[in-house]
Amino acid sequence: MASLITCPHCGVRPKEEFSIRGDASLVRPAPTASDEAWHDYVYVRANPRGRTLEHWQHVAGCRRFLVVERDTFTHEVHSVTDGAVFARENGR
Amino acid sequence: MIRDYYNRHALDEKLRGAPRPAGVNHLAIGHRQAVAMVLAHAGEEDTVQQVLSSATEFTVRFSAPGEWLVVSESDTSEGLQRRIDAFCAGRAYVVDQSEARVLFRLSGPSTHRILAKGVGLDLHPAAFATGASANALCGHIAVNLARTGDDTFELIAPRSFAESLFDDLMAMGREYDLTAAFAG
Ligand SMILES: [Zn+2]
Question: ipTM value of the model?
Answer without folding.
Answer: 0.86
